[in-house]
Amino acid sequence: MTPKILIVTGDAAESLEVLYPYQRLREEGYEVHIAAPERKKLRFVVHDFEPGFDTYTEKPGYTWPADLAFAEVDPGQYAALVIPGGRAPEYLRNDPELRKILKSFFDTDKPVAQICHGPLLTAAVDGLRGRRVTAYPALEPDMQTAGASFQDTEAVVDGTLVSSRAWPDHPAWMREFLTVLRTKAPVT
Question: The DJ-1/PfpI domain covers which part of the protein (predicted)?
Fold first, then answer.
């Protein structure tokens, strides 16, 4: 049976941080589903770094359909979880259905890949306490408040948790996540 991987996201997620792992994991042979607050066409954004700006800029990105609503997700059916960044995690962390999903993955020590602002979700379920992580560098104080040890590097692996700063770090992030997946949930 092909292992299934769940991506949890919503409107204003960073396009590349959803679609790169979606396509890379499918290429590897995994079945990948995208869950959101409801089944609908999601509207992603593009964050870029431009000279003269103190922070990233945001432009409209791709659209993509959600396969499932959070309320429809059975976490037991999934071998791993991917949490993209963008602005979506800022409001998704308040969703009680999503918090149940996240907690289930951490309670069962299944592989979790998080990037950019994605760790705001895992912090909301106390999944970072005592762990080493990275995230978008502006989140360093949030990660420390959540009890994590922040490291400003391309990818950090702490057990089954793999984190990364932002889309420029995709190669390191997916390389480390696939190393974890090949051990914990290999494609047969």
Answer: 4-178
For 70-91, letters b (16+ CB in 10 Å) and e give beebebeebbbbbbbbbbbbee
Q: Are 4 and 31 in contact (CB under 8 A)?
A: yes
What would the two tokens of residue 126 be?
């106390």
- β-partners of residue 8 are 35
Rounded distance between C-alpha atoms, residue 21 and residue 142, angstroms: 24
By annotation, the residues acting in catalysis are 117
Question: In what order do the strands lie in the sheet containing 31-36?
Answer: 68-69, 31-36, 4-8, 80-83, 112-115, 161-164, 155-158
Instruction: Give the tens place of pLDDT for each residue, 44-77.
Output: 999 998 999 999 899 999 999 999 999 999 999 9
CA 59, distance to chain mean position in Å, is 20
- In degrees and rounded to multiples of 5, residue 33 shows phi and psi of -120, 145
